[in-house]
Amino acid sequence: MPLPGELGVRARDLLAGRLVPVPARAAATVALLREPPLEVYLLRRAATMAFAAGAYVFPGGSVDPRDAFVDIGWAGPSPADWAVMLSADEDTARSLVCAAVRETFEESGVLLAGRSAGEVVPDTTGWEAARLALISRELSFADFLAANGLVLRSDLLKPWAHWITPEIETRRFDTRFFVAALPSGQRTRDVGGEADTVVWTSPAEALTSGYFLMPPTLHTLNTLTAFETIADVFAGDPKITTVMPAPVERAGQMVLTTEGQI
C-alpha cells in the first residue's frame, strides 16, 4: 500500500527514529454471520468520521474501561480461559470480550446475552434507550446486563485475528477480531450513528464489490471465503498472529506492508 503525502513523511520519520508512535488503544470487532447462504454484516463508516471514513467495517470499537468490571454476568469460557485464547492478561481479556458484545449491540442491535447460560434473548428492540445510553457512555455494559437480569454469552464468540494499527498513524488501535453467529430470532437494524449504510453480503461478494476495505477487514473477509456454513467457521482453527503493517522504502517510495506477518 503506497504511503502518499503526510503518511509518507511520517513513515520516513519513523524509520529515522524521529517519530514517537502514539499508543494503540485496545479495541474489539466482530464479524457477525448469518446463513443460508453464509453472509457477513458490514457497515459503512460515515464520511464525517475522523478514522476510516467511508470504509466498510464490522461492528466494533474501543474498550470502555468499565468493560473490565469483575461482577459482570458471564456464561461460557471464563476470562481466564479467554486470557489464554487471546494471549492477554485476564483483565484485558475480559474487557475485550465485553467490548465485542457491547459494540455489536451498539452498532447492529444484536445482543449476545441471555437470561441464563443456555439461552439468548430473542428480541432487543425494547432496549433502544439503553443502547443509546451505552453509546453515549452514560450507562456501563455491566449495569445494563445487571438491570435486565442478563448474562454475557462468551461462548457465542470465537477469536479470529489480531491487528494493530501501523505506528505511522495518529489514531491507533490494538484490535482483536471475533466471529459470531446472528442469534435465532434477532434481527440487525440500521442503528449506528457512525454508519450511513449497512449491508449483509457474502465474503466473496464483499471482496469484489468495490467497497473501500481496510487491510484487516479485507484479510478477514478473505479468510471467511474458505467456509460455506457457520458451523464450518466455528469448527475452524485459525492461526492467530499479531499483524501490524510496517512502512518500508522501495524504489524511493514509502509503502506499507504485512510481509512476513500473514
Write the CATH architecture name.
Alpha-Beta Complex
Helix content, binned percent = 25-40%
End-to-end gap: 15 Å
Derived structural class: alpha+beta
Number of alpha- plus pi-helical segments: 8
Mean of residue pLDDT values: 93
Shape designation = globular
Beta-strand percent range: 15-25%
CATH fourth-tier homologous superfamily? Nucleoside Triphosphate Pyrophosphohydrolase
Number of β-strand runs = 13
* CATH topology type: Nucleoside Triphosphate Pyrophosphohydrolase
Uncertain segments are none
What's the number of structural domains? 1
What would you report as the Rg, rounded to the nearest angstrom? 19 Å
Characterize the main sheet: 8 strands, mixed
Look at the structure and give the CATH class.
Alpha Beta
Q: N-to-C SSE series?
A: HEEEEEHHEHHEEEEHHHEEE
Give me some keywords for this one.
eight-stranded mixed beta sheet; three-stranded mixed beta sheet; Nucleoside Triphosphate Pyrophosphohydrolase; 8 helices; alpha+beta; 25% strand; 262 residues
